[in-house]
Target: Alcohol dehydrogenase catalytic domain-containing protein
Amino acid sequence: MVLDKAAAPLCVERRPCPRPGCGEILIAVQACGVRRTDLHIVDGELASPKSPLIPEHEVEGRVAALEVGVAGHMLRKRVGAPLSTPTRVQAPRFLPAILSSDSLTGR
Model:
């Protein structure tokens, strides 16, 4: 989802798929958190952001591609990362995703 200007509806937009650089991974995002600050921007309650804005915060998905410097066993692994777009983060900063909510809910 992309916000072209504050107080406007979010729209779906296709973007070119980036290629990971040395020591980086590409995450095929399957879930994404949105910060309350982003919602204030979407609602037009805060200053207009640099356009376009992709409201997002933390992502979860699978490693779709990797480059030199990243262990091959990471390919297709579930990972989660606290980041904002556009961001390039070295692969060692990514952690395996929690496989269930049991550890969060105590079930």
Notes: The chain has two helices and four strands.
